[in-house]
Design goal:
lipid metabolism, lipid biosynthesis, EC 1.3.1.9, about 40% helix, Rossmann fold, alpha/beta, seven-stranded parallel β-sheet, 9 helices, 7 strands, about 270 residues, oxidoreductase
Length: about 270
Amino acid sequence: MISMQGKRGLVMGVANERSIAWGIARALDAAGAQLAFTYQGEQLKKRVQPLVAGLGKGERLFEADVTDDASMDAAFAGLKETWGSIDFLVHAIAYSDKAEISGRFSDTTRGNFLNSLNISCYSFIDVARRAAEMMPEGGTILTLTYQGSQKVIPFYNVMGVAKAALESATRYLANDLGPQGIRVNALSPGPMRTLAGAAVGGARRTFKHTETNAPLRANATLEAVGGTAVWLCSGAGCCTTGEVVHIDGGYHIIGMPQPEALPKPE
């Protein structure tokens, strides 16, 4: 196992025990890293706090609303006061109005478009800038994306556009922060049974379709995503930056369903 002993980092976006962010946190913890977490509001705090307490390494919790500069200032000031510096940051934050992603993309309202891009993309830019100030000796910044950024996925709509912007931001941030020894990458799991994934219409059919047609005939697992995150956050990932790393059983390379999944000719 890759060792993360002596490394410290912030994980943003844990919602419950099935969150991709939690899968990443568990893998980093198992590798020896010390973690801090953010939450937004008391409801999420009640979900996250018991999970964090179970790790038992003196983990810290900070309230952070990525749409509020004062909240972000306070969260990172608290983190800096606690540790002074960090080695990695995981950004797993995205949002769009569920009612709008279930309709037609062309019906996206201006308000939801701006809100979706603000929370799902700009927050990563803001977080990366703040994290970079706490990485004097370099480090790693990760975010989460999905293949709806590159191909049309039913019911994904404006989130696909937001994820495309996020992937582009990943490349530009990698270029900006590279001279400081900071690597910036995005992880792209296939569909997963998470709280966020359940908000996308047709989630069960999408999950089954991907599992049936991916070269490995399998969807991503939290363990697989966590393991990839550990690799990228460790010295083993020292020359990887600006990448979108797919963890989807290879589904992203497929141009059409597998022969056995095609309808039989009449």
